[in-house]
Specification:
Layout (H helix, E strand, L loop, with lengths): L3 H43 L7 E9 L10 H6 L8 E6 L5 E6 L3 E6 L5 E6 L6 E7 L2 E6 L3 E14 L2 E9 L7 E2 L7 E8 L3 E8 L3 E11 L6 E12 L4 E6 L5 E6 L3 E8 L2 E10 L4 E6 L5 E6 L3 E10 L2 E11 L5 E6 L5 E6 L3 E6 L4 E7 L5 E6 L5 E6 L3 E8 L7 H5 L14 E2 L10 E2 L2 H31 L3 H14 L4 H18 L1 H24 L10 H27 L4 H9 L8 H25 L3 H9 L4 H30 L2 H6 L17 H8 L8 H34 L4
Antiparallel strand pairs: 1-29, 2-3, 3-4, 4-5, 6-7, 7-8, 8-9, 8-10, 11-12, 12-13, 13-14, 15-16, 16-17, 17-18, 19-20, 20-21, 21-22, 23-24, 24-25, 25-26, 27-28, 28-29, 30-31
Helix pairs in contact: 1-15, 4-10, 4-12, 5-10, 6-7, 6-10, 7-8, 10-12, 11-12, 12-15, 14-15
């Protein structure tokens, strides 16, 4: 019976060992699974951005007319629309359910876009024949044969009854219900364009006798009935010799672009009084067939006879502002017939004379989608405001409704990682600016400045932390007195638990202003402190009986350090007055062209380095302290000094763990959020200057994710930034682990 006890004990221990083995294995597998889940979740959010866009025709029908009885029997049989009912302008409401069609007879016909059935109609009280027209979003301007112009705005009032959405189309007249006299001589307007601002408006037209007329108006809205009154502010005109193909008027009313028959584009500068100086002339290699302003009016799209669309915009130079070629788009070699721009993004649709329809996006320079199903030329196109539907009319007066699946046209590899020439900039650059206060804003999603800022912050933090942490670990492990080590090591390890938000708070509210005030003293400290140490070492060597203080040298240096810091800060102001005309910051800006941001890389390096030091110190010190004593004693017995033993025995033996400590510190610096968020200007700059701030990937995610619309381009790009940060950390740590393993094999024989 007694012999069974060891067996029973052995079985119990075996069960415990197996259970422990399985639990440890389960824990390890769970960690790997969690990492993989994070990886695939980030990937799942990011992948839809790079999926292909699609355009699909939903339906087609003959252009809706008010009364088919108006057609002759022969015309009705042939489905021919009379000239007076030809389509001039088309439009769509935001969800693409209701369309609008302005005819040559002055009727506005509203119809169901799915069936083509007319839902309502309104007649415009027009005193003369319509000779020209143009539209911008929901604004329509009609040029008349008597030199007048009529401006109307198509709106769709939404109401809900029993949870049913009802649309009521209406017309508004933002420049008054009466037509506006644009040409006092009464000549017919062959081209006309409009720009409408909050309290002003601009109209430009070409008359039948080849005159270019520009008028500025002041408009006021009545608080009683919401009607508008318009007052002429200025009118000016110029004679133009060539036949005009198209006009485009900038929203700021400062530029009028005139495309003439052939290959010439004129850029007329305008002010409140009208034309300014001689127009700038631009010659193209192919005839111009169409021009259109992109959303916001900062870029001009020029369609050419060879099927190319070029984007031009005003760029500032030393000699003024000039229209400059930015990029081009081309899908085929057929002449461009119509360009239709989206209401809320920098995308546009292009059609040619053979019915080929292509969707482009300007910023990413992407060909988004294309379709070839029409056998006739396209004459009109209109987007819904959500850019999910596109209404097209061909030269046979057939309407085609398309559904467009194009959620993320802003994304391309060039946008994310290349230089892009954005509107308002003098040259291509890496820019991150995801939002602005205007609806015509061009999003800028370059991840390069954020990646650069992440590496920059980590670099300066490690530059400050590594020497202090490693040298401190070396002294603590091998030279410090045991009693002092028992106090120093736990104290530094406790520092690692200090919340980084507290450090960021202190850096932003105290350290950054203090460094700015004592900037000269900070740099003086880097010079004075080494001399103070050297002087202290010289004095230490001359002292008798110093052996009794062996291992306590660090405590003796504390008063020296405090004295050097006090001396440097005291000398800060006198040095600035003596050498830098009273201000080092102003001197750097004026003499060297170096800007100074109060929350900059210097502050981040100091405070984030302070946060990283405990991580590196603790791991490195443990490794150095754990080096077998027989190696150290053997080295000392062979005549090596303690320093030689440290350099040639202890450090190599502990190098794998020291390398791991540095890598963990670097990983901590790369992923740090709150310190960088609170201690820098949080501006995505690409400047290695220690006096400029930055924005890191982690800080950018923390700032912008709460404001990003779920599943939007901005939202998914932030997840892409997280995926890049995750992948970078994973790859870097993997490489570091491989290096550590090789070092461990190399020095395992010691």
């Amino acid at each position: 019976m007694n012999n069974s006890l060891p067996t029973k004990h052995y079985d119990t221990r075996s069960i415990k060992e197996q259970a422990a083995k399985y639990f440890v294995t389960l824990g390890g597998v769970s960690v790997i699974a969690a990492i993989l889940l994070i990886f695939f979740y980030l990937l799942q959010v990011v992948i839809p951005m790079f999926s292909a866009s699609h355009i699909k025709e939903l339906t087609s029908y003959h252009s809706p007319v008010v009364d088919n009885a108006e057609l002759s029997s022969s015309s009705a049989q042939k489905k021919i629309i009379p000239l007076r009912d030809k389509t001039l302008v088309i439009g769509l409401e935001e969800q693409g359910m209701i369309g609008a069609r302005v005819t040559a007879s002055g009727k506005v016909i509203f119809f169901n876009t799915t069936t083509g059935q007319v839902t309502s109609t309104q007649s415009l009280d027009i005193e003369s024949a319509i000779t020209s027209y143009s539209s911008h979003l929901d604004l329509v301007v009609l040029g008349l044969a008597n030199g007048h112009a009529r401006v109307l705005k198509i709106i769709y009032e939404v109401s809900y009854q029993n949870n049913v959405r009802t649309l009521t189309p209406k017309l508004k007249f933002p420049l008054g219900e009466e037509s506006i006299e644009l040409d006092p001589s009464g000549q017919a307007l062959t081209q006309v364009v409009l720009q409408l601002n909050d309290d002003s408006a601009g109209l430009a037209a070409v008359t039948n006798d080849q005159r270019l007329v520009v008028s500025h108006y002041i408009r006021e809205e009545s608080f009683i009935d919401e009607s508008f009154t318009t007052e002429l502010e200025s009118r000016s005109e110029k004679t133009i010799k060539s036949e005009v193909v198209k006009l485009a008027l900038a929203p700021a009313l400062d530029h009028l672009y005139v495309a003439t028959q052939g290959d010439i584009l004129y850029d007329y500068s305008l002010n409140d009084e009208g034309f300014v100086n001689v127009p700038a002339k631009y010659t193209f290699k192919h005839p111009i067939t169409s021009i259109k302003l992109l959303l916001g009016g900062n870029s001009l799209l020029v369609g050419l006879h060879n099927g190319e669309v070029q984007q031009w915009m005003q760029v500032r130079t030393k000699n003024g502002s000039f229209l400059t070629f930015i990029r081009n788009f081309q899908e085929n070699n057929q002449a461009v017939s119509v360009i239709a721009t989206e209401h809320g993004r920098k995308g546009f649709a292009v059609s040619d004379n053979h019915g080929h329809l292509t969707l482009f996006y300007s910023t990413s320079q992407r060909t988004v989608a294309s379709i070839e199903k029409l056998d006739s030329a396209i004459t009109h196109m209109a987007w819904s405001s959500r850019a999910q539907h596109l209404l097209v009319v061909d030269d046979q007066q057939i309407m085609h409704l398309y559904h467009v699946d194009n959620e993320y046209p802003e994304v391309s590899w060039d946008v994310l990682f290349g230089k892009i020439w954005y509107e308002g900039y003098d040259e291509p650059d890496y820019i991150w600016q995801s939002s602005a206060s205007t609806n015509d804003f061009e999003p800028k999603f370059s991840l390069v400045p954020l990646t650069f800022g992440t590496i920059k912050a980590a670099f300066y933090a490690m530059l400050f932390a590594i020497p202090i942490a490693l040298l401190g670990a070396m002294f603590t492990a091998q030279f410090m007195a045991p009693r002092m080590r028992q106090t120093v090591k736990p104290t530094i390890e406790i520092m690692e638990a200090l919340p980084t938000v507290i450090l960021g708070f202190l850096a932003g509210l105290w350290l950054a202003p203090y460094v700015e005030t004592h900037l000269a003293g900070v740099f003086t400290l880097f010079i004075i402190l080494p001399f103070g140490f050297i002087l202290s070492a010289f004095v230490w060597e001359k002292l008798p009986n110093k052996a009794i203080f062996e291992g306590w040298e660090a405590a003796i240096l504390i008063p020296v350090i405090l004295l050097m810091v006090w001396l440097s800060m005291t000398l800060s102001s006198p040095l600035e007055n003596l050498l830098f005309n009273g201000s080092l910051r102003d001197y750097m800006s004026q003499q060297w062209g170096w800007g100074y941001d109060q929350r900059n890389s210097l502050v981040v390096g100091l405070i984030m380095g302070f946060a990283v030091i405990p991580t590196i110190f603790s791991i490195a010190e443990d490794a150095l302290f754990s080096v077998p004593q027989h190696l150290i004693r053997g080295s000392l017995a062979l005549g090596a000094s303690r320093w030689q033993t440290m350099m040639y025995v202890v450090l190599p033996a502990a190098s794998p763990a020291i390398f791991s400590a540095v890598m963990m510190g670097f990983g901590r610096a790369v992923g740090e959020t709150m310190i960088v968020l609170m201690a820098t200007g949080n501006t995505p700059l690409m400047d290695m200057s220690i006096f400029q701030g930055m924005r890191t990937l982690a800080a950018n995610i923390a700032v912008e994710v709460p404001e990003a619309e779920v599943a939007s381009t901005h939202y998914r790009i932030l997840f892409l930034a997280a995926f890049i940060l995750f992948s970078f950390t994973f790859i870097f740590n993997t490489i570091a682990e491989l290096i550590r393993h090789r070092l461990r094999q190399r020095y395992s024989e010691l």
